[in-house]
Design goal:
The protein is mainly beta and about 120 residues long. It folds into two domains: about 50 residues, no CATH class; about 70 residues, 3-Layer(aba) Sandwich (Rossmann fold), CATH 3.40.50. The protein has two helices and ten strands. The strands form four sheets. A three-stranded antiparallel beta sheet has the order 1-2-5, with helices on one face. The protein has a three-stranded parallel beta sheet with strand order 6-9-10, with no helix packed on it. The longest helix is centred in the middle third of the chain and has 9 residues. The protein is globular and about 40 Å long. About 20% of the residues are buried.
Length: about 120
């Protein structure tokens, strides 16, 4: 993230609010709050933003760019609400599976980046 910021990209991190994610601007070195699921997140007073590109964590993916998240639907709801231009999954290559079940509310990714790609 620091490297992207040095290149001039604005960095937005997710913050959990109820059953939704909101994205707040973050700058390298700024303190983060303890969030649910053992994650760190930007403080409530950080400016809200609507990211055009989302880097999305996942538990598994397939060659059709379908993903399995972590079971709460946070990113599916965020993608549907924000309609980002580009949705990129972040994974390790060992997380690829032959087929991910895909339902109407699931959001397909535009690309997946692994340590091999």
């Amino acid at each position: 993230m620091a490297g992207l910021a040095r290149l001039g990209f604005a960095i937005a991190l997710p913050r959990t609010e109820g059953s939704s994610l909101e994205f707040r601007l973050w700058h390298d070195g700024e303190a983060l709050d303890a969030g649910p699921f053992g994650l760190s997140e930007p403080p409530l007073n950080a400016p809200l933003t609507r990211p055009a590109t989302m880097l999305i964590p996942l538990a598994a993916f397939d060659a059709s760019l379908h993903r399995i998240g972590f079971g709460k639907g946070f990113y599916d709801r965020a993608i549907a609400a924000l309609n980002p231009t580009l949705k990129i999954g972040l994974a390790f290559s060992c997380q690829q599976v032959p087929h991910v079940p895909f339902e109407s509310h699931d959001e397909r990714l535009d690309a997946i980046v692994t340590e091999k790609s």
